[in-house]
Write a structure and sequence with these properties.
Distance between the termini: 27 Å
Helix content: 10-25%
Radius of gyration: 21 Å
Organism: Trichoglossum hirsutum
GO biological process, one term: lipid metabolic process
Protein name: PLC-like phosphodiesterase
Keywords: Signal
Structural class: alpha/beta
GO molecular function: phosphoric diester hydrolase activity
Oligomer: single chain
Number of helices: 8
Number of domains: 1
């Protein structure tokens, strides 16, 4: 029982193996007593759900975009290159001007820099104990001249779900702390709840992180405070909502001025810009517009013709098997299905490195995060480690590593 409790700690129950449930004709009820991850008390968890032939991973009616031609879009984007004159000081130089109380500085010990394509503004800031980037371009100066598609970034799996004491949480820290710690890709499931879009895992009855605009507002604030960073956001369209609904929340959160609009559809591996050009490419749409530094993907239902900055995931970014139960972590493409090797080689890809355990509870198959294996999963070496997967998969580096409990 103790092992079972460990497996459930911090868990996010999926109602099926690999996100694809088996058909069932009536609701299944599960009652489990277990300990919460941040409390010594036991709680009783009652799950009532109908297992259907489609899980939240692939929403009903979802399709994959399979382009036969490349569409080149007109753009007024500017490009530029960050200079290498970065000094370890208590000031920060940004790629645009500050306005309305938005400062351009980072905390003490941060790196100052400038862009050759925009004016700079400098402000002093008071030292704080929280981590902040000390070099531009996602923590490494050499990344400034690398293409966005030629960098490996860590992704927080189900980033919004960090509610203390909730058994469905997948992260320990909130999104601001995640970004301060170096996470540069944020992923989360979105459901239609109370006539709007919420970040929820599997069902909003299990865990509800609130409207997605609330979460995205924190991302906007972080981008404003860190003008030399590029962040990727991947949202799961679990209820197959139109992209315009996501657009409304992105606008409300103030994130739209930061959203990257690609010059073509789809973007091939070698089509992506360098980080420095993204950082220095402001269009002047908003006083706080300090570069097109938010790359936003939607797994299903994107329409770049209607919302150009909400990018279709699978025509540009494939991924390994979702919620794997195999500690060897298979490397082959899982979504989109049927992807040919030459197609995979021409796109970015994401490794799902969140080990799960399949458990049958009262005739209901569920996948539980293997929390007891976290030290191995998130380690640098050993079977099932991040290091092993990075060094052995497909002979090429991942673009994104998707992890549980990024600490």
């Amino acid at each position: 029982m103790r092992l079972f409790q460990l497996l459930l700690v911090g868990g996010a129950l999926l109602e099926t193996a690999r996100g694809r449930p088996q058909a069932a004709s009536s609701p299944a009820t599960v009652v489990v007593t277990l300990s919460a991850p941040f409390s010594s008390k036991s709680v009783v968890l009652t799950l009532k759900s109908t297992v259907t032939d489609q899980g939240e991973i692939i929403p009903p009616g979802a399709t994959y975009f399979s382009p036969t031609t490349t569409i080149t879009l007109a753009t007024t984007a500017t490009t530029g290159t960050l200079t290498e004159g970065f000094n370890q000081t208590t000031t920060s130089t940004v790629t645009g001007s500050s306005s309305g109380g938005n400062t351009s500085g980072n905390t003490s010990g941060s790196t100052s820099g400038s862009s050759s394509s925009a004016s700079s503004a400098t402000t002093s800031s008071v030292a704080t104990p929280i981590p902040t980037p000390t070099q531009p371009c996602n923590g490494y100066l050499e990344f400034c001249e690398r293409q966005y598609s030629n960098i490996t970034e860590v992704c927080a799996h189900n980033s919004p779900f960090n509610i203390r004491g909730n058994l469905f949480s997948n992260q320990e820290l909130g999104v601001t702390a995640q970004l301060n710690d170096g996470i540069r890709m944020l992923q989360g499931q979105v459901h239609f709840q109370d006539d709007t879009l919420h970040f929820c895992h599997t069902k909003c009855d299990f865990i509800d992180a609130g409207p997605i605009s609330d979460y995205l507002s924190n991302v906007t604030k972080w981008l404003q405070a860190n003008p030399n960073e590029v962040v990727t956001i991947l949202m799961g369209n679990s209820d197959n909502q139109p992209p315009t609904s996501f657009q409304e929340h992105i606008k409300k959160a103030g994130l739209e001025p930061f959203a990257y609009v690609p010059p073509k559809i789809p973007m091939g591996l070698n089509d992506w810009p360098t980080l420095s050009s993204m950082i220095s490419s402001g269009h002047g749409l908003h006083p706080s517009d300090l570069g097109k530094r938010a790359v936003i993907f939607l797994d299903y239902g994107a329409d770049q013709g209607s919302v150009p900055y909400i990018l279709d995931q699978f025509s540009q970014l494939w991924e390994t098997p979702f919620s794997p139960t195999n500690r060897s972590f298979p490397c082959e493409p899982d979504r989109p299905p049927g992807l040919k090797s030459e197609q995979a080689a021409a796109r970015m890809y994401m490794a799902n490195h969140n080990l799960n355990v399949e458990v049958k509870v009262d005739k209901l198959d569920v996948l539980l995060p293997a929390v007891a294996e976290l030290m191995f999963m998130n380690g640098a070496d050993g079977q099932g480690s991040l290091g092993e997967m990075q060094n052995t998969c497909l002979g090429k580096r991942f673009n994104f590593f998707l992890l549980l409990f990024c600490l």
